[in-house]
Amino acid sequence: MAARVLSLLVAMLLAAPLSAAPPTAPVVDLDVDRSIPIPPPATHHMGREIAQTMHYTGAPWLVRESRQREEDCRMLIQALDIRPGQVVCDMGCGNGFYTLELARRVGPRGLVYAVDVQPEMLHMLAERLAREGVRNVRPVLGTPIDPRLPLAAVDLVLCVDVYHEFSHPEAMLARIHESLAPDGLLVLAEFRGEDPAVPIKPLHKMTKAQVRAELEPAGYRLERQFDRLPWQHLLFFKATNGAERAGEGDKTPGP
Ligand SMILES: C[S@@+](CC[C@H](N)C(=O)[O-])C[C@H]1O[C@@H](n2cnc3c(N)ncnc32)[C@H](O)[C@@H]1O
Fold first, then answer.
1. Domain limits of the chain?
2. Atom 8 in ligand 1: which residue has the minimum CA distance?
3. Could you give the dihedral angle defined by the CA atoms of residues 53, 130, 104 and 123, in that order, rounded to the nearest 10 degrees?
4. Is the CB of 121 under 6 A from ligand 1?
């Protein structure tokens, strides 16, 4: 009898699949406090019409084969100068085109908060993270007024093709401001509104002057800019303290 049980056990062990369990998707933090009221979305902000949020069904466009050639995404990410161990945020991450590369650059000691207001985008991202075994990304569902980031903790918040979609730009800028670590940066990549050769709908482009006009009163100062991308502005902002905000000296580079 004992021999039969033993042989049965051996047979079961041999029949067990040798492959590892399928990778599990990282948990998407969907824990939004629904009791906090969200004011109706603005249609305009400081003379600019706010663009509609890009719907998640359009996500394949974000990972299109021509994107590198058109936008030189490798140059963009290189210009960010991400260092191992940093905490960064891919704000409006979509399906994670930039998230995975940010994760690679901050390395296992670093962390990427990947924030979006569409859970469907975050689920697509989570699947990619699982497929590629990436563990240093935290996908977070934000609300239109709160990206739900930790306070004074983020070294760099990256918004690629996102800021012009914020339906509540003032609230978002205030929350991002609070989330930045000392010397932290908010980096905006926006299609150049001044350049008619950039083949993007005008509502989805911004001029540098408009970006500055919106960010400076919200407590940011233009620290530097990278002007070599084919289609986009890449603007690096630092959070100013109260004194600077009150107009104590202008240290910003020219237009
Ligand atoms: C044009 S897509 C860009 C996606 C990604 N940054 C990329 O370059 O591949 C804009 C994304 O911003 C997200 N978004 C819009 N408003 C947002 C907000 N207030 N907070 C977080 N994400 C937002 C949209 O849901 C959408 O996924």
1. 41-241
2. 160
3. 10
4. yes
